Amino acid sequence: MGTSNAAAMLRHQTARAAPDLVRLLRKAHAAHIEGAFAQAEKLYKAILRHDPDNFDALHLMGFLNHQRGRQVEALLFLAAALKRNAQSVEAHLNYGLALQALDRAEDALASYGNAVAIEPDNADLLNKYGAALLGLGRPQEALAILDRALIWDPDKIELLGNRGNALIKLNRPDEAIISYDNARGVGGDSAQLLTNRAHALRLLNRPEEALADLRTAVALDPNYAEAQFELGMVLLTLGEFEEGWAAYEWRWATGAFSAHRRYFKSPLWTGEQSLNGRTVLLHGEQGLGDTIQFVRYAAHVARLGADVVLEVQPELVALIAKIEGAAHVIARGEKLIPFDFHCPLMSLPFACKTKMTSIPADVPYLKISETQASNWAKRLRTKKPLVGVAWAGRRSHNNDVNRSMGLSSFAPLFDLADVQFVSLQHDPSTNDRGLLRSHCNVLDVDKDLRSLVDTAALISQLDCVISVDTAVAHLAGALAKPTIVLLPFAADFRWLCGRDDSPWYPTARLFRQSQFGRWENVIEQVRAHLVNLRRVMPAPSPLPKDLRCSQPGPFHTFDR
Fold it and tell me: Rounded to whole angstroms, what are the CA distances from 322 to 281, 296, 450, 559?
């Protein structure tokens, strides 16, 4: 047999042994679409054994791994596919999805950007690119991308919805509602659109309208956790405690809270199980102010016969160590002692069936020792009223843009020369420090406030505290200190609506914005209030006798 005939026979035998890769790919893709992932994977692997550089098999195998939650494997296959065809929009897109699933948001954004560069008029790609920007906290860029996409596809529901979300992040809720309504006009109502719209309505202080949207959202999808949670906050804002606290429990199923849910072998205490002779763990779950507000329930739970273990943020342990009802107070992260039940602090109003008339509001429930207080009492000798001020909360708070204010907005109060102001602001900016120093009647003691115990001890020696909605307001209220709380147009649910008092803190008075985003009227009202109080209040004694501040200070003459 000649050499040429042998070579021809070898090619013929090889062709007979090799499968029909095109047919095999169609079969694999069909199985993939039908959800038969194991069969599809087997067929993709068979193709790659015969053709390791087959772009379609590499790409689809990568996407299959992404769908099955195997993101590292997905990236390997998708990277190999992109080496074969760097102009594949779908491969760049799926590579970005796998990166996003691994919380590599910046890398995912770059991959979406590569896809957009190839097809700049692809509305689906632009939508994903815009959503990725939004997820990275870049709403202004996201809005520009989404508006660009709407030129190509003005009736795309996902684009209109994401545009509304970007406007929410930009604190433009009125425009967000228009975008959500445009989406509803195209595709009708959906639980997600109505929930987002209700959130915008809440920001505009329109809780009744938000309630209507959320009732519809829950009817459309009773298991949509975000709708149920938002419904809980609206109901609580309106004072509907029974239904509100129950709906608030849905928070643990939402995207924002699910990753932070605690799982223990011991069951959740729901208020139905007897606690007599049992040990119950009460654990903080959100911010410092939330823990300060709801730690009051320790005494109530103890009266049910429980041995109460409190787990709180490390910053709060020293402050809360001697609170009534707690047998043990430990820092989050420390080893827990055995317990029979557990309950997150903000689930206690639900478990205790709290009504408006049964809020445990016996203040003060935080106490300061004489030693801690006396140092401040000696330092703050003055015949002027002593007023503590805090104008900003934690910057990472999801509504900080509304609840905090700039010191320049607060500054008109400092023109009251007959009042001695004391800054309670933690870590003020360099500019703020300069502004504080420019007023001779403002004392900046931030460097001496090394802990919340220090802050509480200082507050105990003040006549009044003025604060935006942050931990300082809760701390002052828990110490039974006369407290002026400055609230945005749409305040957090705990402050209810349409009230200038708080059933949670009897010594607090609430001043609310009358217009969205405008603090001028609030500051004017507080200034007038301080002027009136200065006229009627007695001069404070140089060294208050009650260093524990067990009673409200001399500003108890608040006119309601």
Answer: 16, 12, 20, 33
Burial class (CB in 10 A: 0-12, 13-18, 19+), 185: exposed
Condensed to tens digits (0 to 9), the pLDDT of residues 378-435 reads: 888 777 889 999 988 776 666 767 888 888 888 889 988 889 999 998 878 888 888 8
Phi-psi region of 104 (alpha: psi -120 to 50; beta: other; left: phi over 0): beta
Which residue shows structure tokens 């004017």?
524
Q: What spatial distance separates the first Cα and last Cα of the chain, rounded to whole Å?
A: 112
Instruction: Please count the residues of the chain.
Output: 560
Number of helices (H) and strands (E), helices first, in the chain? 26, 10
Q: Which pLDDT band, with edges at 50, 70 and 90, does 375 fall under?
A: confident
| pLDDT tens per residue, range 146-202 | 999 999 999 999 999 999 999 999 999 999 999 999 999 999 999 999 999 999 999
Give the 3-state secondary structure of residue 515.
coil
What is the C-alpha separation between 516 and 201, in angstroms, rounded? Answer: 12
Helix (H) or strand (E) holding 203, with range, is helix 191-203
Distance, CA of 457 to chain centre: 29
- 501 forms beta bridges with 509
Return the residue matching tokens 């805090």: 390
- Closest by CA position to 390, among listed 360, 349, 348, 428: 428
Cβ burial of 503 (10 Å; 0-12, 13-18, 19+) is middle
Beta carbons of 403 and 469 less than 8 angstroms apart: yes
- Give the sheet arrangement for strand 483-487, strand by strand: 442-444, 420-423, 386-390, 464-468, 483-487, 508-512
Residue 97 Cα distances to 67, 70, 121, 323, 552, angstroms: 10, 12, 20, 48, 57
Highest mean predicted confidence (pLDDT) among 259-263, 285-289, 347-351: 347-351
Show the 3-state SS of 255-321: CCCHHHCCCCCCCECCCCCCCCCCEEEEECCCCHHHHHHHCCHHHHHHHCCCEEEEEECHHHHHHHC
| 156 three-state secondary structure | coil
Looking at the DSSP bridge assignments, the partners of residue 331 are: 312
Beta bridge partners of 330: 311
**Burial annotation 155-182 (CB, 10 A radius, 16+ → b, else e):** ebbbbbbbbbbbbbbeebbebbbebbeb
Q: Which residues pair with 442 in a beta bridge?
A: 421
Sole residue written with tokens 């103890």: 302
- Owner of token pair 């047999």: 1
Token reading at 292: 């300060």
Check if the beta carbon of residue 229 is closer than 8 Å to that of residue 250. Answer: yes
Residues 6+ apart with CB under 8 A from 291: 284, 312, 313, 316, 320, 345
